TrEMBL record:
Positions of the UniProt region annotated as Disordered: 45-70
The entry's keywords: Repeat
Low complexity bias (residue ranges): 50-64
Domain Maestro/Maestro-like HEAT-repeats: from-to ranges: 743-1000
Keyword Nucleus on entry: no
SUPFAM superfamilies: ARM repeat
Domain Maestro-like HEAT-repeats: 322-555
Organism: Rangifer tarandus platyrhynchus (Svalbard reindeer)
A Pfam family assignment: HEAT_MROH2B_C
Classification via InterPro entries: ARM-like, ARM-type_fold, HEAT_Maestro, HEAT_MROH2B-like, Maestro-like_HEAT, Maestro_heat-like_prot
Protein name, per record: Protein MROH8
């Protein structure tokens, strides 16, 4: 590191020259003189040694504590050395560089002893025994002198110290009195009972000193006084709130001083001559550092080190270079002193090891060279302390793990050049990490994250990022409190503008996500943010950097969060995590960093998102269970809905997996609108499934195989959407490979549900499967169940049932066939046009399917259908009319009749009554029981459709002339006339006219037999008369 001596010429101290023995009382002067000759004090170096603390007193001559006495006044007349380790120091890092190769060559042992620690490359080989010395004195102060000192100190407590002379006198009196502690019980009792007064006095003196300048040795004397008490095991900076405040105060009084350039310019002229502020600053700082060292010399439990670091922590992170340098130098010297006098005992109370390591590592990469060098030296000592600490505290049960850690540390240090090692934060992280427990790792991370907040020093930000990445990579899964870490990271996103640092943060999150132990924890925290995500969090999702093998795991865990929401039962409100995951998936798809995983999980992603679309239809954000406090200052926009997140994620998924044609089909056919509709969602699902099957059959087949187990999970909406997609994919030839239990059996279960959408999907699936020859026999067993569906009120169910029955009508047994024909006959005239038409089609197909031997069994049903078919040939719906004529032809062939050509005339009957007369004449000849035909026809006079009513009335009137008169006479015609008379009041004129004509014909048909009988009698009578 180069020479560490920084000396300046000495100049006389003006204020010190003002102090003389004559000012003080005789007893004070005598005490101080005695103290000056007996108390050890370090001067040339910060590290107290045996010679510096011995009674012989070369140290006392260097410090010069007497009032007007040579040793005390000569303080600034000697060369002053900066508190830095020299190249010749046995603890120097540079010293070890020369011995590094020799150390590496030596065999390494895994025994956990001090000798093992020194085998670590770069660590010194000196003894780790406690080197602290006890103070020795020529003799104790007399009781009279001690009492006089106590009396004067009490006066200082009660009075007000105005002049610098009084302040210095008070401080030196306290120091003198502290030297009697080991042997004088009276003094010991006085000091311990007046600790609060001493602390108050010192605090007052420090507070009265100017903050922006240094012209008085008072601060220096305060530090020396505290040091003297510390050597006597009286710690004025520990133990109570007022002592802690004093510690903060004295620390700030030195660290927060302006830079040395400001302090030394201009020089202040004192009455005694020129005053060297630089020299005074250095001595004051040296006294401050020695004060800190005095606190750790006997710190066997590291409790004092923990408190020291607590107070130095904010200064080590200061934005001001001179403050950061002072804090780093102080901390390094403390670590060096502790390292030299290391003698640890359980229990250890050092609670901030992880944070210390992190801050020192960051400082090793500080842009200020002086800070980096000091931090490197401090880190060197800290590594040795850490090794010793871990050897003492390790659990005997984990002996092997500690051995492995030691071995790993050794291997890492052997890989690096020591100078490069201490100047590279991420390598420091690798070495220290093996010894840090989970709580210390957390401290390390949090301290490093604080470094990311250092906006004034971009270099520190980058170093912090590298340090974190190295630590997370190395520590694997030993972290705790990951949610707290993620919270700090997310809070930092909006404050960091450097692209490189932002990417480092993303990499850190990615590393945590990649560890299976933390994946769910990190995802849960990232999801607990307002949606839509702000640009910072959106950028984080989009720029995740994950190793290829881990991408699928991360995307799968994110997907499972959403699927679990669908698995739960009916809830009053949708879980917020469902909406958050959907938005997160959208951002991941946009970023396209997890492309391979997206393709691999495409079936699961697509189906889960479609299910989410179904769940969010008609919902607003008020229907979502938003965690309290998530939107503290703003209300959720009404334009933001759970549905919009699900739709945009689904669209982006298709685009990122190159399903552009499928996307285009959905857009052209308004598929996205269908998906969003409450009543047409399944249509949108079917459209997308067909588009995928048509354009990308490989992906479609993957989805099909996924859906086999997928259909068994989730709630009704989950199952319904899955079923809708699955059914459409049954069109694929791949479906024939599925065992019946996965298709037909499942479709049968759906048929038996009291749920019309599931029945529709089941019937649609059966329609597709009937095209697969292998499935026909299994489906045929379901025909009785399907026949029952012809009575359903849902038109789609009936039509699909008819389509399936059409496929099996040729192979039906006679009983099933006749049952079906009766059911179909009841559907003639159904108000649902398609049901009406397809029932006639299936009826005609049924007649064709009747075997020759079974014709007699269905002949009556065929005859009964003739009149309805004939009348429906006049339906206003052309398709129904045409189909009626077609089925009528089939019936005629079955009966071996040849219908008159008038039957096929498309013109309305009332326009050409002659055609109707021809038809009635044909039926009059072919049919028996014409009164029953009249009754059947008359029922259609009440039909809702005018053409049917009109045709029925016209047919009744014209057919009546072919009715057997005896039959009419038996059954009467009153019931016919009553119905026709009601029609005379119908609002439709054409119907009234046709009804009046029919009524006339009926009455005429009744009257004709009587008139004929009268005419016959007259003719007979006339024939008997003579001509």
């Amino acid at each position: 590191m180069g020479s560490r001596h920084r000396s300046v010429p000495a100049v006389p101290l003006g204020r010190e020259a003002l102090i003389s023995r004559t000012v003080l009382s005789a007893h004070c002067a005598t005490a101080l003189a005695y103290w000056a000759a007996s108390t050890p004090r370090a001067s040339a170096h910060l590290e107290p040694t045996s010679s510096q603390r011995s009674h012989s007193g070369s140290h006392r001559q260097a410090v010069g504590r007497g009032l007007g006495v040579g040793p005390r006044r000569g303080l600034l007349q000697e060369e002053v050395v900066m508190p830095c380790a020299s190249d010749s120091d046995s603890g120097s890092v540079d010293l070890q560089l020369g011995n590094l190769e020799d150390i590496k060559k030596q065999p390494s042992s895994l025994e956990l002893t001090d000798s093992d620690i020194t085998e670590i490359p770069g660590l010194p080989r000196e003894s780790l025994t406690d080197t602290s010395r006890h103070l020795t004195h020529q003799g104790p102060l007399s009781e009279v002198v001690a009492e006089q000192l106590i009396q004067s100190i009490q006066e200082f407590f009660n009075g007000e110290l105005k002049s610098e002379l009084e302040k210095l006198t008070a401080l030196r009196s306290l120091s003198s009195l502290s030297q009697t502690l080991p042997s004088d019980e009276t003094t010991e009792s006085f000091i311990h009972s007046h600790i609060a007064d001493i602390v108050h006095l010192l605090s007052t003196l420090v507070e009265e000193e100017p903050r922006q300048s240094l012209f008085s040795p008072v601060l220096q004397e305060v530090f020396i006084t505290i040091t003297d008490f510390s050597y006597q095991d009286v710690y004025l900076l520990f133990g109570s709130e007022d002592r802690a405040d004093l510690f903060s105060l004295v620390t700030k009084s030195v660290i927060a001083l302006p830079s040395i350039k400001i302090l030394t310019h201009p020089q202040k002229i004192m009455p005694g001559g020129s005053y060297n502020s630089q020299c005074l600053y250095r001595q004051t700082f040296q006294a401050f550092v020695e004060m800190l060292q005095s606190l750790v010399i006997k710190d066997r439990h590291l409790e004092n080190l923990d408190i020291i670091f607590k107070h130095m922590d904010p200064w080590l992170q200061s934005d001001k270079d001179h403050e950061r340098e002072r804090a780093t130098t102080s901390m390094t010297q403390v670590l060096k002193c502790l390292f030299k006098h290391l003698s640890l005992q359980l229990p250890l109370r050092f609670q901030r090891l992880g944070r210390v390591v992190a801050l020192m590592a960051l400082l090793c990469g500080d842009p200020l060279k002086e800070v980096a060098e000091e931090a490197a030296e401090g880190t060197h000592y800290l590594l040795h302390i850490t090794l010793k600490l871990k050897c003492i505290t390790y659990d005997k049960k984990n002996r092997q793990s500690l051995k492995r850690a030691m071995k790993k540390c050794r291997e890492l240090l052997e890989l690096y050049n020591i100078k490069q090692f201490y100047s590279c934060p991420f390598r420091i992280a690798q070495v220290f990490e093996v010894f840090l427990n989970s709580n210390e790792l957390y401290q390390f991370v949090m301290a490093t994250l604080d470094g990311l907040k250092n906006l004034k020093h971009p270099h520190t930000q980058r170093s912090a990022g590298e340090l974190l990445i190295a630590l997370v990579k190395t520590a694997q899964s030993r972290f705790e409190k990951v949610p707290e870490i993620m919270g700090v990271i997310c809070a930092l996103l909006s404050t960091i503008s450097q692209p490189k640092v932002r990417q480092q943060i993303t990499n850190i999150v990615s590393l945590f996500l990649s560890r299976p132990k933390y994946t769910d924890t990190v995802i849960d925290h990232l999801l607990c943010h307002p949606v839509p995500y702000d640009r910072h969090l959106a950028e984080l999702w989009r720029t995740l950097e994950v190793e290829l093998p881990k991408t699928t795991w991360i995307l799968w865990r994110l997907l499972r969060k959403l699927q679990k929401c669908h698995d739960s039962g009916t809830q009053e409100k949708m879980a917020y995590v469902a909406v958050a995951v959907t938005d997160a998936l959208y951002e991941v798809f946009v970023g396209n960093r997890l492309r391979a995983a997206t393709f691999r999980l495409f079936p699961q992603l697509l189906m889960t998102l479609l299910v989410q679309v179904h769940h969010t239809i008609g919902l607003t954000m008020s229907d979502v269970a938003i965690p309290s406090g998530l939107y503290p200052e703003q209300e959720v926009s009404s334009e933001v809905t759970p549905l919009c997140f699900a739709i945009q994620a689904t669209k982006t998924l298709l685009l990122r997996t190159f399903c552009w044609q499928e996307f285009n089909i959905m857009e052209k056919n308004k598929g996205w609108t269908l998906l969003e509709g409450k009543d047409c969602h399944l249509q949108g699902v079917s459209l997308l499934a067909n588009a995928l099957l048509e354009r990308n059959h490989l992906l479609a087949h993957k989805v099909m195989y996924l859906l086999v187990p997928f259909l068994n999970r989730g709630n009704d909406k989950h199952k319904l959407t899955s079923a809708g997609f699955f059914v459409e994919l049954l069109q694929s030839p791949v479906a024939r490979r599925f065992p019946s239990i996965y298709c037909v059996a499942r479709l049968k279960d759906w048929l038996l549900l009291e749920n019309n959408p599931f029945k529709i999907l089941a019937l649609r699936g059966l329609c597709y499967l009937t095209r697969q020859g292998e499935m026909r026999e299994d489906i045929k067993s379901l025909l009785p169940c399907i026949l029952d569906l012809l009575y359903e009120s849902d038109e789609k169910i009936v039509l699909l049932a008819i389509q399936i029955l059409l496929q099996f009508v040729r192979t039906m047994d006679f009983t099933t066939l006749t049952t079906m024909m009766r059911t179909l006959f009841s559907l003639f005239g159904d108000v649902r046009p398609d049901v009406h038409r397809f029932s006639m089609i299936l009826f005609g197909a049924s007649i064709k399917s009747v075997k020759y031997t079974d014709k007699k069994g269905v002949e009556s049903q065929v005859l009964d259908s003739l009149v309805p078919l004939l009348l429906y040939s006049q339906d206003e719906n052309d398709a129904i009319a045409a189909e009626s004529r077609q089925v009528l032809t089939i019936c005629a062939r079955f009966l071996k009749w040849k219908l008159p050509q008038a039957v096929y005339c498309k013109a309305p009957w009332f326009i050409n009554p002659s055609d109707v007369a021809t038809i009635c004449k044909f039926f009059g000849k072919k049919c028996k029981g014409k009164v029953d035909i009249l009754a059947q026809t008359l029922m259609f006079s009440k039909n809702a459709k005018l053409p049917i009513r009109r045709a029925a009335v016209l047919f009744v009137g014209l057919l009546s002339r072919y009715v057997d008169h005896s039959e009419l006479g038996t059954k009467g015609t009153d019931w016919i006339e009553d119905d026709l008379k009601k029609l005379l009041h119908d609002p439709e004129p054409s119907l009234r006219i046709v009804a009046s004509q029919a009524l006339f014909r009926i009455q005429k048909a009744v009257a004709e037999p009587h008139s004929r009988q009268t005419l016959y009698g007259l003719r007979k009578l006339t024939g008997c008369l003579p001509i």
